[in-house]
Amino acid sequence: MVTNDSERPVEPLVGQSAEGALGTASQDVVWNHDHVLDLDDFLYEEIESVISLAGKMREVLDRRIARAPILRGFTVINLFFEPSTRTRASFELAGKVLGADVISVSANTSSVVKGESLIDTVKTLSAMTADVIVMRHEMSGAPYLASRHTRASVINAGDGSHAHPTQALLDIYTLKQRLGDLKDKKIVMVGDISHSRVARSGMWGFSAMGANVVLCGPPTLLPSGFAVSDRPEHARTALPDVDIETDIDVAIKDADVVMALRLQKERQQGGLLPSLHEYSRLYQVTAERLSKAKNNHILMHPGPKNEGIEIGGDVASGSNSTIEEQVTNGVAVRMALLYLIAQRNQRGN
Amino acid sequence: MVTNDSERPVEPLVGQSAEGALGTASQDVVWNHDHVLDLDDFLYEEIESVISLAGKMREVLDRRIARAPILRGFTVINLFFEPSTRTRASFELAGKVLGADVISVSANTSSVVKGESLIDTVKTLSAMTADVIVMRHEMSGAPYLASRHTRASVINAGDGSHAHPTQALLDIYTLKQRLGDLKDKKIVMVGDISHSRVARSGMWGFSAMGANVVLCGPPTLLPSGFAVSDRPEHARTALPDVDIETDIDVAIKDADVVMALRLQKERQQGGLLPSLHEYSRLYQVTAERLSKAKNNHILMHPGPKNEGIEIGGDVASGSNSTIEEQVTNGVAVRMALLYLIAQRNQRGN
Amino acid sequence: MVTNDSERPVEPLVGQSAEGALGTASQDVVWNHDHVLDLDDFLYEEIESVISLAGKMREVLDRRIARAPILRGFTVINLFFEPSTRTRASFELAGKVLGADVISVSANTSSVVKGESLIDTVKTLSAMTADVIVMRHEMSGAPYLASRHTRASVINAGDGSHAHPTQALLDIYTLKQRLGDLKDKKIVMVGDISHSRVARSGMWGFSAMGANVVLCGPPTLLPSGFAVSDRPEHARTALPDVDIETDIDVAIKDADVVMALRLQKERQQGGLLPSLHEYSRLYQVTAERLSKAKNNHILMHPGPKNEGIEIGGDVASGSNSTIEEQVTNGVAVRMALLYLIAQRNQRGN
User: pTM value?
Assistant: First the structure.
């Protein structure tokens, strides 16, 4: 019996073969995270490392056979407490493209029904030798709690209205592909800012890359702590340096990037919106309004979109829209994150 | 660094290795479909190509190790808006036997809950580099709509009461295994014809193979556009040339094949059925009734079956029944379709 | 064309490579089961075989790349009619670590919604060439019924309040790792004995290994057929030789092992419990009560646990607790069972 034979059918997790599989060596990677919870503690260099690696992952996705099985033997568990098509499938595909095994546990089929606590669930999944737990939860902060009780790495796939860091990273990657550099670019996010985890992670990420972030929406849907157009001193530590503008036409003027946020229709019941019709009239991102942005502006949406409410159907599928690119790039960015975590864990953490 | 190394762990999608894996070259394949939506536009030669290839796939399934990973790197997404055990699992297994990655998205865990439109969902999934979207939807025509908005190939796994082409193909394959040829064979489908996607795709497929198709059921459950025993001229274009018979004993007489269709128990509420008991008395496929069919008749059912309603329990598990063969053959036929689509896409479409 | 090439990308199911992958030959295995339904018909030697093999599987799990793909080409179907996180994920991971394909079918997405009968479902899944059906069902006995209608092997993953044999096996494995031998060890199970499939399989398994099993709980939650402290003769055949004790302090005294069982909170509505508070006061496994057990006692819980009800939070995460080990060992035991079944089927059954 030859011991070397014992793992033969399993390719190396990462290592020299990764260079081959990714078509290049990944040098000068800066990465010091066990978990990906939000971007507020990400260095510029760390974001650059993710983006650079995502570029190589995107090349893998564009191959005829879109596979680079450098994470064989790596276990990713998708733990989703909220319904999701795109993010769950994106992580599942990201894992599978790299040869990892991906197991999905969704709240409605899980023993959460039996009242199992979040901590108990996460401890259990990591005891099953999960390497990464990708987690979506309706409660802000849940992935932080989880990360303190597991040996696995936790990736936040959206927690309440708090954070959605992989969305922000895929947006940054998409913008860098188009613009080269985000420095001093005007990025306007329009919609229900105060309940949007996409907006919150976006403002941290875009700011870290040197962009000028403008938040635009009706006063009732702007984060508390912001006054209109001037933010009190005490709130400065809690949010990056961004501008606020309730008039969409002023906000969009000369914008490099306009991102329409999904409007949760339930918001209307909460009394924060007079009506969907009124919202659309005042804040829908339309062709006419985009004519005030820069000529080569980019139009983004995190999806799923309500066409005719927060975004016009014509511009959503127009030539300035990067909505489908964002989806493809999302797979690439998630591949990059799984790889960075696997490589860090392999080095002995 | 050797570029050739980069994809080493991934087997070719299709190509020369496929010949080896399938035990033979697949010559003279006629196949001109980007999508599989219904059989009404399938040529006889195309159906023959699927059936012939399904025979090779069935040989793979009968091996001790039932795997031929010729579709490594191929991504299949199961998008099911209606509950399904057998069809979803059958496609998942078909993909996995061929080495493809299969991701399942079901309606109750998907962001369809959030109101995401069908088109948006399909665009998103294809932007994630899905090669095939296998789709079941409660609305007739939904897969057609989907196919016009995606780069992926769409396979209809059942849409409303419209079509279920993979079921018809597996039925044809099962019958050809038993009968050799369907030409001039009498195939009787009994039950709720007007709401049955199985019947609708079956009539197109069986007719294309030269069989004589007889539809049998209570007048309220026959398709409108059919009068009893004579069909008006204007309906000819919408349906293949089939016969109608409301008397089951007349219909079954000298039949080569009898297919009992599942009765949706909900149909009773709609006022189309007096009672389940009355239905069973008049239209249940029983041993006594089958005694009027040919001696070596074949009894089919697409499953899941209501024993004691549309079919007698004794005949369902009797020697003329092909119900379990149909299930196994369903995996083989779906393997064949995935292979044909992959090969077409590889040729540059 | 070379025939030998045809299966090249698929590793052998089991065989000489298994020795390499597992790091040793598996000699003297005693195993005579087509199905794993309960432990009441398991020989001591069969349990020892599972445990010994689970030890090798645990070594695979502890590798940096926790994979030994010796079951490539093997198909496991998870058929869960009750919600479950841990057991379903554990079987899925067990299969994937060994390179098997695992397909999950859960009741709320399955055609069980359409009224498909259990037998029909199981026949269908085995006709799809499933090798193993892992089944959880709310009805006691359902896996037995299933096993009589399928060519696949059925593993009971919990049926009603009847049996949960893989849980008992993982508990035995965990105890043997800690204690070496279970002979004459005092194992106390505390809680809702009469509704617990964990307790029921545990008593068979622990008794077979020579342990002294004590069942402890309120009289209303002890199995009928037991009188307090003496069991009538006629019940002897239905249960192994165990002791009953309603006083938890007497039960725990000098115990080697204490297992707290999950209390189903719904039990209160049934009138079998005065209140959760009263239950906790009388039967919660606490540090104080455990001080009467042996010094090096082991504390177990099958999970998911209600901390503060049947178990104290401090002891649950204390140094005597094996709760997380049980989870990891559960994957190892399930790997062992899948392997034993595959090897038996390969020998021609």
Answer: 0.92
